[in-house]
Amino acid sequence: MAKTLLGKLFRVTEVPTPQSFLLTDTVEVCGRGLLYSLVNAHLRLDTDVLYLTTTHSTQDIKSHFMQEGTPGKLIVYDGSKDPCGWDGGEGGVLLNQPLPEIFSDRLTSGGTEDKKVVVVIDRYEHILCSQESLHLIRGLHTLIAKEAVEQVIVYCGRDTVEENTLTALAHIAAVTTHLLPSHPLTCKVVLRKPSGKVIKTHEEFTLTKELQVQDVRPVKKATTSLPPVENTEADTILASQTTFSLTLTEDQRAAKNKLLLPHTRVQQAGVGGQIHYTPDDVDDWDDDDPDDDLDI
Amino acid sequence: MAGIGATSSFQKKVKAKVVSIPGARPSIHNSQLLLSTGVPSLDYLLGGGLPVGSILLLEQDRHDVYSKLFLKYYLAEGVMNKHMLCLGSLDVSPQQIMQDLPAPTDTEPEEEHKVEGDKQMTIAWRYQNQVTQPTACYNRFGHNYDLTKSMDKEKVSQADVSLWDGCEATEGKGVLNNNYYWSLLQEIKRKIDTSNLSTSCNKAKTNVLRLGLHSIGSPLWGWEFGRQEREQEWHNLTAFMTVLRAMIRNSFSVCLVTIPSHIFTDPALLSRLHTQADFVVRLESFQGSEKETNPIFKDYHGLFHVVKLAAINSLVPPILDTTDWVFRLKRRKLTIERLHLPPELSETVSRGQEESLQTQLGHQACMGDKLPKHLDF
Where does the record place Acidic residues bias (chain A) (predicted)? Predict the structure, then answer.
């Protein structure tokens, strides 16, 4: 568990903490659980989390975290109430301002001593509706570069944004996690360490009810048993030149597989089948292959 | 310059007067004034070095690991020769890049290794006279660097460096309405003007400007990378390169530009940038690609593609003796080498193609690997 990349990332034990974390999901699979799990891990480590939400209300978000007595504080910036400022912008966050300004009350006050904060951007594509993509990505970059920020977590739908936006996000993210709609859930992770090392994995995991990432293990490479190479061209050439069928129909194949050959019968009976051999005096009994150099 | 006694009409032939600039030397091919890129093996590929007034375009590897090293070498070489430096970057803060330049060393990092190679060959004696990449002839041009240590802070602070991180970008004008491209050009122009580096200025040149521009065209600069040709949205980037090229040509300066070409959606943009640059090289790192596990490449870290070489004062660029180059990051240094296939050491000699053909057809054709025209039974 500790060795796997996902385990490290979602327990925030990766050192140094990656400065930017991109988590993407699709319509088929929801990454919210993973996001909450990551935020929880930060809260447990006594890090304050600035959470910008665009769809869920403050109460809704808080309900996922409040039951635990975590040392870190969760501060929700609610962009779901009045994103465009039509209701006078009371109590909500305007989404059309640059990202660093949204969090400016916490990041520039200087009152937060040396305590670093984690910034969560819940649904990047929703902010994209009220800002130009170029401005948004620049804002995000400024946010990441800020000293008071330990990590910026961007949560984004993979299939709901333009490909360019995704490229741009992946370009600046230190960790890119793509959640895949598979069973069990799997993630494709790319981690770029500051040292220049790049780790790329594909790992499966389970998410417990307490939003813990567990049972992480690398996805076994689908045993690429090469599908029988069907050289159709050769087949047709051969078939045109023979008077018999070279292929089997499904029925024939089934019948062939069912057929019990004599030697199998003997083997199954469990008797016989051994080979007795009396060595000759000229026999070569070492492990060397006498035809080593023939390369047959 | 006549003889001392003034009796002889012979005149001593003196070399054409070349401007003496620290760290520069004339090319043996075309007398162009060359500067080292900091990586001797890259200098070799470029025909001895980077001619003053030219642009080297470096296409980054996917994760910008090795390209950043090339940039650092280039800047370190400038610091060592007390060149003027100008570094522009949006993706990484330029201060951070300058802090982490490789430290110069006096010794060739892999010296002990070389001595071994000098031994008389007893078996493969016919390779004795094989030309190796000349390491000796350029060792006084450029310095050696040790990647494990970073350069003295004092030394870096002594250098005349201007860093540009886009903080004070002003509103762009004309074709260049992108703030960043515009203000970076302004900064470069100011630097060239104040140090009298322009060729139109008659003052004797004693120094050169080394420009390093990191990750031009990345998403932070503008959205050009994602645009298609028909959208005609590239003018900021292409105009920037054109103006940059004009400025470099008309001044005593060289420029290294790195671009994240893997994120460009339209290859046409890349070819336009290729046209603008004098030298184009591309890094293809094995990180995360299937080539990482390919035994052929196990000693190397990536392929080094030489895309374009400048043809200065000539019709054709110099022709390299091989097309397959690889780069390798050793503990202390980064080198570019010829791609050599590893010796075949496996137990059975693999005849790759033949075997695969046999396995493909083996279960159908009983005649071996060749498909007969007619079957004989």
Answer: 280-296
The predicted pLDDT at position B137 comes to 45
Query: Cα separation of B328 and B320, whole Å?
Result: 19
ipTM: 0.75
State pLDDT tens for residues A91-129: 678 888 888 888 888 876 555 556 788 999 988 998 998
Contact indicator for B253, B197 with CB cutoff of 8 Å = yes
In a domain, A242, yes or no: no
Mean pLDDT to the nearest integer, B116-130: 62
Tell me which chain B residues have a C-beta less than 8 angstroms from the C-beta of A295.
348-349
- Distances in Å between the Cα of B179 and the Cα atoms of B241, B318, B320, B334 are 15, 38, 40, 35
* Better-scored residue on pLDDT, B291 or B7: B291
Say how far apart CA B41 and CA B135 lie, in whole Å: 8
CA–centroid distance for B66 within its chain: 11
Considering only residues B238 and B109, tell me which one the structure prediction assigns the higher pLDDT: B238
Is the CB of residue A163 less than 8 Å away from at least one CB of chain B?
yes
Domain count, chain A: 1
- Ordered by start, the domain boundaries in chain B are 29-108+136-338
Contact by Cβ (8 Å): A157, A35: no
| C-alpha A19: how far from chain center | 18
- Answer whether B90 sits within 8 Å of A141, measured CB to CB: yes
Q: What is the pLDDT of residues B286-337, one digit of tens each?
A: 887 777 778 888 888 999 999 999 988 888 888 888 888 999 988 888 999 9
Range of the domain at A168: 5-218
d(CA A37, CA A41): 6
In this structure, the strands spanning B50-51 and B55-59 are unpaired
Contact B348 A295 (CB under 8 A): yes
Residues 6 or more apart from B79 whose CB is under 8 A from it? Answer: B85, B101, B151, B155, B156, B159, B161
| Minimum distance, in Å, between the CA of residue B226 and any CA atom of chain A | 6
CA distance A141 to B90: 9
